[in-house]
Design brief:
With 356 residues, this protein is an alpha+beta fold. The chain has 13 helices and twelve strands. Bound molecules: thymidine-5'-triphosphate and magnesium ion.
Length: 356
Amino acid sequence: MNRCILHIDMDAFFASIEIAQNPFLRGKPVIVGGHPDSRGVVSTCSYEARAFGVRSAMPLSKAYRLCPHAIFLEGNYSLYKQYSRKIIDFFYALTPYVEVVSIDEAYLDVSALIGHSTAQQLAASLKQQILTETGLTCSIGIACNKLVAKIAASQSKPNGLLEIPLGAEAEFLSPLPIQSIPGVGVRTQEILNREGIRTVSDLQAVPLDELIRTYGAWGYHYYHSVRGKDNRPVHWEEENPKSLGAETTFEVDQSDLTLLSQELQALFERAYHRLRRYKMRAKRVSIKLRYSDFTTITRSSTLISHSNDAKILEAASLELLHRHYQGNQPLRLIGVTLEQLTDGYWQPTFWDLPQA
Ligand code: TTP
Ligand code: MG
């Protein structure tokens, strides 16, 4: 059976929340990340600032040179997480088949809902609900798989809705630049460009055996991706999970402990977010480390009692990393899992209460 997947990604997420909170900012270039004199980088910026060339991860000093009249804001991460949680709850109200990918991004498998409504109708009403309840816009891609749905969402930004009909995947992708394909990072893009491969259609023309000769296992990935083929299911979660985890495979193997700690913290946030959504508590924290040679270890730490305290659980996961990571060996994968779960009482926060 053909699947129907929605990919939803909020537009200029952190900046849009700041604007929703303070309408004076609407229509203005807004940059979130800190004061332009500081050494930090841009988290994100409004589309008005993007018109001046400002982008995520750019040094704030450079953003200031490009757009000196922009409004620079420190950012309020806990507020952004609260918005994120509200939006994710709308997804779960539609279907249990939700895979939350990041703070502002999720896949929904809505195959079972099609017939009663069209995918376009579902997506349009979700966009409307998010806008009415939060004041934020998002972009939604609809396709038969995750890869094409994600690219469709990014192509429709901002405030877009784009459905790629079944069978039109390769045709949709062909005019796009090669870096539109997830997995084609800056380095791969440079290598491909040197060989004269700039668009997806250029890469569609390269035979499979040549791709495998040049790129090894990634050759298969490119071959199928450029044709819009992707079999990955939406990784949704059961009603009462036994464990909640998140892991990531690096594009380039990593050995920098600071970076690994940051990645682990980001993964922990994802696992913890789900713990919170299920209103559960965990008694054990595990980490998984896979080295370049595919040697994989998992290490666990058991707490004295069940906890839903983010600080305690996060500290346990970081402590495991610091204790067990062999610093001289690069990692290709890192993951964290919250285990031995039990139902727990969560104090409702301001955001759980109806807003005036
Ligand atoms: P994105 O979805 O990549 O970016 P965005 O929502 O700001 O803009 P759009 O999707 O319309 O292109 O990331 C979501 C949030 O994650 C973003 O608002 C801020 C944060 N973020 C960072 O802090 N640093 C980064 O380098 C990136 C890419 C995002
Ligand atoms: Mg976004």
